[in-house]
Design a protein that fits this description.
Distance between the termini: 51 Å
Largest sheet: 6 strands, mixed
Helix content: 25-40%
Strand content: 25-35%
CATH topology of the largest domain: Rossmann fold
Low-confidence stretches: 188-201
CATH architecture of the largest domain: 3-Layer(aba) Sandwich
CATH superfamily of the largest domain: von Willebrand factor, type A domain
Number of domains: 3
């Protein structure tokens, strides 16, 4: 929050500039028709300048003004910036403010707003919303305030540095959503830790085998001892290791519906990580591009979720091709036991994906891998576009070819034993949570 007290110089308004522009040819016509009246032109100019100065004086000065900027926000979320001002005279008209800020906050780094007077307090105020487009720390650097007199000819204006900073965090709105909180309360692996029979790998007890039970649960040794079929009741697995790995390279930095893919992926991953922590599993974050960026220790308590959020905020954007060989080899060396690795990545062609497929193939030998990619809505739009001309037809054919190549790569991953999720960004988070529970309950991690 910044507050200023000011004495501001006078400036002409746009209306005054238009009057001067209109007056100039009129003065030339008067000088051409009646040369003796030439003195009328400078006299009128003096009168106009006097009116501009008088109007600016009637506008009065600004007693103080304040720019209110939030210190924290989340990527993609509406973030208000407010301006408050008090003037020495009630004749101040049409106050307008302009704010300059980092392009991470969107709107090409600049926003304008008009201030409205509160008749009870006499204070002028206004606000506008920015929608941050990238994580990081964004500066709000300068502010301008301008208001006119009653004639709209003279104005006063000031500019001052703000030196405000806004920390932009990953979007956690899905975590706070009522739907997810209700789901966690009602789910079997919800907020209360309790034994859950019939799932998992940890032995709980024996029960008589009944029709409809999975035959794989029959305990043949116990059944032979008692001359009766008995089935094992297992307790749901806990303490699994879940690693969310992020490709921070060029493909993941490209926007999808106005936000980089990496930010869409981070939001979905943190939502699933919160659910995993509530389910009793341990979660870690790993980010890489040309070299590993972030590797957090495993978090086992949902109360330490903020550590995952801080680590995700530190994932940088890199306009380079990722080094999957180095990154996944480094990740493998850090893991001491079998884990579920959820890899968020993207690719543009099979050639660029070849090293990725080879590296994932080595990872599958020791760990369970879930590959998550955001469906390319732009390609789908090009494919479905009506071919009204040759250029549109060529674009549609090229997009269809790229989509086919993309499906071939994903099919290769499936044949290698990699589970694959490809969906629009709005569905990625919920699809990921559903798949996590399927994998957890299938006893495939431990």
């Amino acid at each position: 929050m910044s507050r200023f007290r000011l004495n501001i110089p006078l400036v002409p308004t746009e209306r005054a500039a238009w009057l001067i522009a209109i007056f100039a040819p009129v003065a030339l016509v008067i000088a051409a028709i009646a040369p003796r009246l030439w003195v009328a032109a400078p006299a009128a100019a003096i009168v106009l300048v006097a009116l501009i100065v008088l109007d600016g004086l009637l506008a009065g000065s600004c007693r103080d003004w304040m720019v209110q900027v939030p210190s924290d926000t989340e990527v993609g979320q509406a973030t208000p910036i407010e301006v408050f001002a008090r003037f020495s005279r009630s004749m101040a008209m049409r106050p307008e403010a302009a704010i300059e800020f980092d392009a991470r906050l969107g709107q090409e780094g600049r926003g304008t707003l008009f201030l409205v007077r509160n008749p009870e307090t006499g204070t002028f105020s206004g606000k506008f919303d920015v929608h941050p487009e990238r994580r990081g720390t964004a500066s709000v650097s300068h502010a301008w305030l301008r208001w006119t007199g009653p004639l709209g000819l003279g104005a006063r204006q000031v500019t001052r540095p703000l030196e405000e900073e806004v920390r932009i965090w990953p979007d956690l709105s899905p975590v706070r959503s009522q739907e997810l909180q209700t789901f966690l309360r009602d789910s079997q692996t919800g907020l209360i830790a309790r034994r859950i029979r019939g799932e998992g790998t940890q032995f709980e007890s024996l029960s008589e085998y009944e029709a409809g039970m999975d035959r794989r649960r029959i305990d043949w040794k116990a059944s032979a001892r008692h001359n009766h079929l008995y089935a094992r009741e297992n307790e749901s697995e806990r303490n699994n290791q879940i690693v969310f790995a992020f490709d921070c390279g060029q493909s993941m930095c490209e926007p999808v519906d106005g936000m980089p893919r990496i930010d869409r992926a981070v939001s979905a991953a943190l939502t699933c990580a919160y659910v995993a922590l509530k389910s009793g599993d341990r979660v870690s974050l790993f980010g890489f591009a040309q070299r590993p960026q972030v590797m957090t220790p495993f978090i086992a308590d949902s109360r330490a979720f903020h550590r995952l959020q801080s680590a995700a905020a530190g994932l940088d954007y890199e306009a380079t091709e990722p080094n999957f060989t180095l990154a996944l080899a480094t990740l493998t060396s850090k893991l001491k036991r079998r884990s579920l690795i959820i890899l968020f990545s993207d690719f543009t062609d099979p050639t660029a994906a070849e090293l990725m497929v080879e590296s994932i193939g080595r990872l599958v030998e020791k760990h369970l891998v879930l590959f998550v990619t955001i469906a390319d809505s732009e390609l789908e739009n090009f494919i479905s576009e009506e071919p009204g001309d040759i250029a549109t037809l060529a674009r549609s054919v090229t997009a269809d070819s790229l989509a086919t190549q993309r499906s071939v790569v994903l099919q290769r991953l499936r044949r290698m034993g990699v589970d694959v999720i490809e969906a629009p960004w709005e569905q990625i988070g919920y699809r990921l949570i559903d798949r996590y529970f399927v994998i957890k309950n299938s006893e495939a991690i431990g």
